[in-house]
Amino acid sequence: MRISPTKFISLLFLVLSVFYLYTAYNIQVFAFDENAPFNARTFPIYLGWAGIILSSLKIILPEKVTTEVNHKHLDYKSIIYLIIISLIYAAVILKIGYFISTSLFLFASYYFLGERRWGLMFILSFPFVAAFMYLLHGLLNIYLRDPFLKYIGVMG
Amino acid sequence: MIEGILIGLSTALSLTNILMVMVGCFAGTIIGMLPGLGPMTAIALMIPITYGFDPSTGLILMAGVYYGAVFGGSTSSILLNAPGIPGTVATAFDGYPMAQQGKAGKALAIAAYSSFAGGTISAIFLLVAAPSLSKVSLAFRSPDYFALMILGLTAISAFSSKGQFLKAMMMVVLGLMLATVGQDSLSDITRFTFNNMNLTDGISFVLIVMATFAMSEALTIIFRGKDPNRAAKQISLTELGSIKVNKEETIKMAKTIPRSSILGFLIGVLPGAGATIASFLAYGMERNYVNEEEKQKFGKGSVHGLSAPETANNAACSGSFVPLLTLGIPGSGTTAVMLGALLGFGIQPGPRLYQTNPEIFWSVIMSMYIGMVVLLILNLPLIPYIARILAVPRNYLIPLILFFSVTGIYLMSFNNFDIFLMIGIAVVATFLRLYDFPMPPLILAFVLGGLMEETLRRSLLISDGSPNFLWDRPITLIILLITITIVGWQIFSTFRKKN
Lengths: 156, 499
Hints:
Low-confidence stretches of chain A: none
Mean pLDDT of chain B: 82
Strand order of the largest sheet of chain B: 1-2
Strand content of chain A: under 5%
Low-confidence stretches of chain B: 227-237
Radius of gyration of chain B: 22 Å
Distance between the termini of chain B: 54 Å
Structural class of chain B: mainly alpha
Oligomer: heterodimer
């Protein structure tokens, strides 16, 4: 039997709802609140049941409108590269600072999306981020934490 | 009211705020023009910029972005037959054929004049209706608010689901579930944090918007291999033609604009219904109004057919501010984003906003009108040049959207857990979008989650745990009956399709 992707997503949602409901029942409330008409558990319990009912209906009822996705036309390679670059960016942003990590992220993203005009790639990464930081920090007075630039004395 | 208008005018006409309307309209036009990126993305990307502003300025900027994005969406509909936002799909029906006939400039001008007129008329309606409705909504109690939120969430699911109501309702529940993460507002008990300190304060609204809209839309564009700029080279080479509108066309527009404005405004006020439904209904209504000869021109470049949806979608944008400003309950995904931004400024919109922060209430209304003028006098002549933004290749566009998204979150928390969380949610949202699980219901539910729990708590405590509060008050009962009708209609239409 082949299960449609929509029903598979609904099944995952059902599992999530069951887990959510189980966690909701285990929320520790104050002893005096235990039998109150409403406590920290009440709303999540309603939501857990709502999730279970809706996802079950979606799984059980026949699909009137099917969503067809042609996987051959999906660009998995680019999206995986982009997600990996984003994860690396998130991992290093605090260590090497906003300026360098963001500039490198932009440069790498342009490259992996197929861009090879090096001059333009450079301008739209390092000087672009510097200008953006100046706009935020210098003109709009929005604090932008960058330990590296602070260390070399560029930022106060 | 006159005093309020003057307060609003003095705030909206300050140099900074005029500049913000202009920047907002301009930025919104550019972002809205790019197929796949709508007003929600445009507003979300602007949120980090507004951190340093006072609330009125921030809101004025976002209102400008909203109108600009709707206007920009019409431009790509007319020039590329690729609507930037769903609200401008109907614009392409007659706008694109007109452009194919070498009258692209004229089509853009008709769209701009209609948008201006629709937006202006509905801003006047808003000016009159909002204060009166604010007074009426002071009579609302917790059960009424709870019922109203249920209605809003049901309505947005019904209208945004493309016939897949259950999927949209699942997204509503998911949004509400995400809203329960963190400390309970009354007892301070932490829920669903799994001992992670980063989740104690809950998931940030900006993070959810950036992940489900800005970042996920960017990833979807890459994933689907769509190139929003493929046809852009043709635009920069194509002569757009004159933007002058002749007397006959002006008369046609003058007939269409008033009725489409009223319809658009009323549809915009309804919770869940927005520019998309307003534009389609206005198109259909106009087709029924015109004579047989004009009817034949629909779909082939009719002035009525272009003017009606353009008027209605802008009128609906102003209309959608009514529930936000008077009840504090957004009626659409876009106004939900604006509500989240307002809450970030420490302002709770609602009936008391009119009394507690009159400068915000009135300046937003006045800035709408200024925004319309800016769009007409600034953007229309610049359209041939702005349209060239479509020539920016996606290789540059997508990383820049990701960069703005990450920066927005980094500025807020300065920790990388939030960035990881945003990437995770964006990836899930991208797959959900692929299978037509709509995101606006999730956003609306996430924004309303806290308020919904609060009103349910009060209602249940007052009624001592009994569900009687659902039918004790006539207003609550009427609102719930409307909700049941919407659900019933969805079930009926599902079975009708089956048979």
